[in-house]
Known about the structure:
Pfam families: Amino_oxidase. It contains 19 helices and 18 strands. The protein is α/β, with parallel strands linked by helices. It starts with 6 loop residues before the first strand and ends with a helix.
Amino acid sequence: MRYSSETADAVVIGAGPNGLVAANLLADAGWDVLVLEATATPGGAVRSAEAIEPGFVTDLFSAFYPMAAASPVIAGLGLESYGLAWRHAPAALAHVLPDDRAALVSRDLDETTASLAAFAPGDGAAWREEVELWHRIREPLLEALLSPFPPVRAASRLARAAGTADGMRLARMVAMPVTLWARERFRGAGAPVLAAGNALHTDLGPAQAGSAVFGWLLSMLAQDVGFPVPDGGSGALTAALTRRLTARGGRIECGRPVTRVFTGRGRAMGVLAGTPVRARRAVLAAVPAPLLYGRMLDEDVLPARLRGDLRRFEWDAATVKVNWTLSGPIPWTAPEAARAGTVHLGGDLDGLARYGLDVELGTVPADPMLVIGQMAVADRSRAPEGSESAWAYTHVPRGLVWDGDRLRRFTDRMETLLERHAPGFRARVRGRLVQGPGELERANPALVEGAVGGGSSAMHQQLVFRPVPGLGRADTPVDRLFLAGASAHPGGAVHGGPGANAARAAVARAGASGGAYAAAVAGVHRLLYG
């Protein structure tokens, strides 16, 4: 393999979205950037291919990107100039209940409120109140969520935008389970299952503390920006990030796994990736924290207390994903589901809570909730005319052996649920690609046991507790080594926050006040881990 250079200002480990965002921002600052990727192609969990049959584009991991569409980090990169275009289904999201009623979120607020009011008078008006609050606090909230911790200026703007009364109630919602919050706000079944299903995009069950804010946030994003997809496949988002980086002189080398981060005199000096690569200014690791700290660093460079904390790091749930090519659209009996790019299927509010509890307690759910993507509904280019490229994923407990037989039986359970609400579905299946936890990890080593969030989203692993008790920032106890992946604050989803925060920290450390910056970080780390 030919290596273009063995020295760079910054070495970025991992060419997933966070690594590419970090590399782009460093290139914007005039740095010479080299991105090293273990797999054969860039993108991490943002990749697509004609993986089942020609003409059908399959998103191999993630697919819908409301956080990317709303993220000020992604917006600041101007990726539309590098080929990125967003496509939308007629409706963003539908949740199909066991009795085949469906609740719908459309970017048309009147359509959403009419759907929810059909479940209970007043629920449409209650949803409208939440949307009005969202629009009032949207910009400072997103800035606060995605900025380095603590987000002092953004938090101040958020407090002013929310006001005292709504601010107190927002703070209460952050600690609430979505089951309780939804029952306080709505009378019917529609709005609660939408919020609970959205909370389950994380590893949090609807009865867990903190799930309300995730359910609310994704619901408001669905109403505001929809659940958009990149035109042509999720890989188009990666392609735009890659084009932007190479246009600024950045380099990406794939098929080159980093096995070690070199350190000397307490700072990161470079990496071993087949051969050594020297990093003049910084190493940014867009990989899960346990992989960085547990495999790439010598144990003696880390404080003993941090190593102990890392043993208590909690991964998010495992995942099973099934991809199909279909001869026609999914034949839903609920007409609302046919219009939505994303469909939630499986359970009322109580059923969703039981499913979440099963996963938490290590029980394979008898009634899983499926998150279903109808890609040609959102983007006609994903499949030949009249056909469909679809997928469904669900969370399952970690630590189980998903051999061929268990995976087949569970896939049958998923398809049986779909057939119940879309009679004739199985007859339309042309091809199928099943990705259990092991298959997901083999395709993307960052998805350990199919964990797609870089670590649990539970309250005990957020902010200054992510990935372990610390600063809640990209800085690590090793000078000039920065954690840039979803294990770092602000966590999972494709929004670029961890990568952007790591790039900002690296630039600050290399700047005129870098010595003072490093001393302050080291001092706090001594307090935390001494």
